[in-house]
Design brief:
The protein has 197 residues and is an alpha/beta fold. It has a single domain (2-196), classed as Maf protein (Alpha-Beta Complex). 34% of the residues lie in helices and 23% in strands. The chain is built from six helices and seven strands. It has helices spanning 10-19, 47-62, 86-89, 95-104, 170-176, 178-196; strands at 2-5, 26-29, 66-75, 114-124, 130-141, 156-158, 163-164. The protein has a seven-stranded mixed β-sheet. It is globular. The chain starts with a strand and ends with a helix. It comes from Enterococcus faecalis RP2S-4.
Amino acid sequence: MEIIVGTNNQGKLKEMQSGLKDPAIQLVSYRKYTTSQEQPAETGTTYAENAYLKARFFQQLIGRPVLGDDGGLTLTAFPDLLGIHTSRFFHSANPEEQNRELLHLFEGQQSIRELTLSATLVYVLDDDKLLQTEATLTGELVEPRGTGGYGFDPIIYLPDRGKTLAELSTSERMKISPRMRALRKMIQQIKEQCDND
């Protein structure tokens, strides 16, 4: 079964493809079906709305079901700073520089460094049908450690594991990643939907 993903973030798509251990499922970019450079407007006020807007946009563009996702980071000390605006908050597109920007927020402060990483997936089948899943992971913001993963992984510390996401093995990281947990739930829903049709 092929699932089309509506993203231009190759790191995200690669993570999803490598973390999926189901040989019956093939994740492909929407670019397989179009050369259009048009992009959806992310004007939603929640992760679910933005995931829907992406999936719906590409579903209408290519005429096939599409999986959209959105997510972000919420800092307990600055609850309104990131969240839905995570990708638009940063001055740089470079992940290492983004991580430095986050750490800079806490310089000279004793603020709580607790955070929540969230992922929401929406699969738009057609005009009337959609499926939705979500997952979260809580941790703490720390100085970069580890070389695995990408993005925020080096600065997200998991107290229960005593490591950052970047210090975990790929298989450990894939088990707890919010995006991967939401994806596994979504694939189950898609399979159930196919069985019912």
